[in-house]
Design goal:
about 220 residues; alpha+beta; Jelly Rolls; Arc Repressor Mutant, subunit A; 2 domains; 10 strands; about 50% helix; DNA-binding
Length: about 220
Amino acid sequence: MEHFNQNIFELVHQNFPQLSELALQKEIAQVGTLKHFRAGEVIMNYGSYVKLVPLLVKGAIKVVREDDEDGRELLLYYLYAGETCSMSFSCCMMNKRSDIRTTAEDDSAIIAIPIRYVDAWISKYPSWKNFVMQAYDSRMREMIQTIDSIAFKKMDERLLKYLHERSEAHASKTIHSTHQEIANDLNASREAVSRLLKKLERDGTIALERNKIQLL
DNA sequence: ACATTAAGTGATT
DNA sequence: AATCACTTAATGT
């Protein structure tokens, strides 16, 4: 048995109680490494090979896809503590390059699991298999939601949902971002975002300042 | 004080 | 709802 990391062991307990086998928890504490990222740091870029699966234990991670045509970005989803990136599963098991880019939205920490274990544990530990399947399932559901929110919902609903997501991501009612950045995330024009934000401000749901939005 | 960047607005499609 | 053209406001040098 290799170097056992008590710290990681405890982090698994706190953030991933569904990984119930003690042997699995111990293995994670042996082969996993704790990695920290500062807010804004790029964790994984397009085209890079995924050789780790992250278990997010602190902070929030933003997952983004770039449009092939005009190089614009589309926000896919956020990851929070207790979650993992299901894209990384498929990517690393197929040994494919990443289609997405992930950045730390906040100061974040992950337990990085080398891929060779990810595969092996699926047959070894039922709770790990469950974990992987559930990660896929919930991501799939969320993606479907996102798709029909783009297809059927109005911009103002999307914007509001976005603001709440961001606020939750930082555990703060204040969002530091320009209208332009928000527009990029939502694939909308800056003007549209500005106008909708203004409307929300008039309704009293938010307060606007330069580079800053407060949820009320 | 001036330049730069963010935000607000109306008109057009 | 996007784009354009322009104004106004805030911030940095």
